[in-house]
Amino acid sequence: VAGLGGSPDFVAYVTSKHATLGIMKTAALEAAARKIRVNSIHPSPVNNRMMRSIEESYAPGKAEEMQKGFASGIPLGRYAEPLEIAKLVLFLGSDDSQFITGAQYVIDGGSNAK
User: Which residues are catalytic?
Assistant: First the structure.
């Protein structure tokens, strides 16, 4: 979800995500005539190695506590699982989404609802 808002201490990362969103929108418009669909997926923290690294960098030796703290800020109370993100990717790649392009899919356990 870094491409949809701001986050202190992550200026380069957030900037790159905002740029990616602009690229997606432009690509969706440019590719539409060729029936190519382009969308973006915006997950909250995902239960993966990248988050372990972020947790450890925030609080060396206390990554588990950081994970609990981050997860407590997500209305559903947990990180996304990689399979949940994969299912969204599968949907967007299927014929079930054939009229969807230029869309932003937020999969964040309700974080953006706040």
Answer: 13
- Domain count within the chain: 1
Domain residues for the domain of 84 are 2-113
Q: What is the DSSP letter of 55?
A: H
User: 83-111, pLDDT tens digit by residue?
Assistant: 999 999 999 999 999 999 999 999 999 99
Rounded to 5 degrees, what are φ and ψ at 105?
-105, 115
Q: How many CA atoms lie within 13 A of 75 on its CB side?
A: 8
Q: Which of 7, 3, 19 is nearest to 73 (CA)?
A: 7
Q: What whole-number distance in Å separates Cα of residue 107 and Cα of residue 113?
A: 11
pTM attached to this predicted model: 0.83
